[in-house]
Amino acid sequence: MAKFYLLMTVLGVVAPYGAFIPWFVEHGADVSALVRDITVNPISIGAWLDVFVAAIVLIVFIISDARKTATPYWWLAILGTLSVGVSCGLPLYLYLKTRHQQTL
């Protein structure tokens, strides 16, 4: 499973940034344009709220579970969640946890 989680971590970085980078190349660091584009309609707002809640739950889960399991480098998964998203943070944490369990 560790290889699967690592592959999903890579995909979880490539897929979102594959969509974001072309937008960034066109618009640059225009925060007002970013907010305008990601809140263009109620569906997109709902999707972002869903991701926001999932990210909060994931961060709390990582902190709680890492304490119980003594998973090393757990903070990388939080960093991945905050810098890329749940699509990176969740599989990265599962990879780190699985690798740690394999060494026990």
Structural class: mainly alpha
Give the helix level as a range of percent: over 70%
What value does the Rg take, in angstroms?
A: 16 Å
- The helix count comes to 5
Largest sheet: none
Secondary-structure element sequence? HHHHH
What best-fitting shape do the alpha-carbon axes yield?
elongated
- How many beta-strand segments? 0
Low-pLDDT residue intervals, each spanning 5 or more residues: none
Distance between the termini: 16 Å
Q: So what's the oligomer here?
A: single chain
- What portion of residues belong to β-strands? under 5%
Number of domains: 1
Mean pLDDT: 97
Core attributes:
about 100 residues; mainly alpha; about 0% strand
